[in-house]
Amino acid sequence: MLLALLAAMGSAQAQIEERGPRSDGPAESTLRRVLPDDGDPLGLVNRLSLNGIEFRLSYITDMLGNLRGGQRRGWINQGLFEPSIEVDFEKLAGLRGLRGYANAFFIHNTGRMRRDYVGGVNTIAAIEAMPRIRLSEFWLEQRFGDGVVRLRAGQMAADVEFFYSDLSVMFLQSDFPTISALNLPGGGPAFPLATPGIFLQIEPNDRFNFRAALFNGQVAPPGLDSEQVRNRYNTNFRVRDPGLIFAEARLQANQAPDASGLARILRLGGWAHLGHFDHASRAADGRLLADPASLGVPLRRRGNAGLYAVLDQQLWRPDGGDALSGVSVFGRVSVAPSDRSVIGFYVDAGVVFANVFPTRPKDRFGFSIIHARYAESLRRHDAHALRLDPEAPARRSSETNLEVTYLAEIMPGFDLQPVITHIWNPSEAPGRNALVVGLRGRILY
């Protein structure tokens, strides 16, 4: 019924966008460019493509070590194999404008650097997750009105379409921002979990688009275990929880490959969750939550929300370069209500140098910084708790990460990326600044 309904709307052909720290990389840079017979000795890839079926295989592996500070020193290896498939139903079955997409995660690791070694809240390497085989996204999309409108329904992740920077995805620590990941139940619909939803985009021209989505607001059923345990394979498909709404407007300039001006994208957006949230410092009886005489049960508030802005700005564009080449800066900033949020203020920013060496056109290097500040009410709660009990955990304030990295293309479809990350004041080890070094390898077919 859904196929028939979407097909009836009619649409124009367009390519599904792919973004994210898991399968980031130039679309044309795959092993198929360098393998014999274009990596397709049996002709299977070509036959599938002629019938509208495209697939992609990505594998990322990180070797990371905490050299000092944090909770403890040590090394871990983590990896993510991600197969994905895109189906053009117009080629396959004559259903004009209808497309489908699905991907899955095969996650392995010997430990989690951020959680087990550093003890921080900001992302250090965006593929960190519980070892598991998981379904990720699984949806159908219809485009109509000469491609002006995109309508999508199925299981989706918010971090693929909202609150991201095109420039920041080269960094290991680029992920769904800390302020949204900690303020939304279960981290929100973001790697490694997704949830059912509906997505709409309106793009009347190449300078402006507006997108909005309604997600199921819980990524896992209730329980005391981690949401990655409660939704073990990402196949819960919950649809009756309070909703989560994202909306974003995007203004852009000089994005075409043949444009000569400096590229720019400005995103203005926000999210609203319709569920209930605990007050950070007040009990249900109106007393301070840290007061032993209080009920000890947090006051409940209806809903939570956040506002954000994202800027990608090119500073220098080499002759013949695209929107992501040359020297560019990016920044993301966000705020959320203090009384019911974990993080009240978030900002990240960075500089990216790409295609600046004629002999290394695919290489990129740069640095990025993340700063997440705990909400005022939560900091007041910690201060009250310390005043009443000197043995209480230390007062939370903020956490800051600095990453310096170089992404080198060894050959099309194979990259190596050394990285150094310094973490100031990790939340679970306050005052024990950590230093993480590592190497990422990526294979794309």
Structure overview:
The chain is mainly beta. The protein has a single domain, classed as Beta Barrel (Porin). The protein contains 7 helices and 16 strands. It has helices spanning 2-9, 44-50, 89-93, 113-118, 178-183, 227-230, 376-388; strands spanning 53-68, 74-88, 98-109, 132-144, 149-156, 195-205, 208-216, 243-253, 264-283, 298-316, 326-335, 343-354, 364-374, 398-411, 414-424, 434-444. A 16-stranded antiparallel β-barrel has the order 1-2-3-4-5-6-7-8-9-10-11-12-13-14-15-16. The model is unreliable at 1-27 (pLDDT under 50).
Short descriptors:
Porin; 11% helix; mainly beta; 445 residues; 7 helices
CATH class: Mainly Beta
In angstroms, what separates the terminal alpha carbons?
34 Å
Strand order in the sheet with the most strands: 1-2-3-4-5-6-7-8-9-10-11-12-13-14-15-16
The CATH topology turns out to be Porin
SSE series: HHEEHEHEEHEEHEEEEEEHEEE
DSSP helical segment count:
7
Largest sheet: 16 strands, antiparallel, barrel
Helix residue percentage? 10-25%
Report the CATH architecture: Beta Barrel
**Count of discrete structural domains:** 1
**Class derived from helix and strand content:** mainly beta
Percent of residues in beta strands? over 45%
**Which stretches of 5+ consecutive residues score pLDDT under 50?**
1-27
| Rg from alpha-carbon coordinates | 23 Å
CATH homology superfamily: Carbohydrate-selective porin OprB
Overall pLDDT metric: 89
Shape descriptor reads: globular
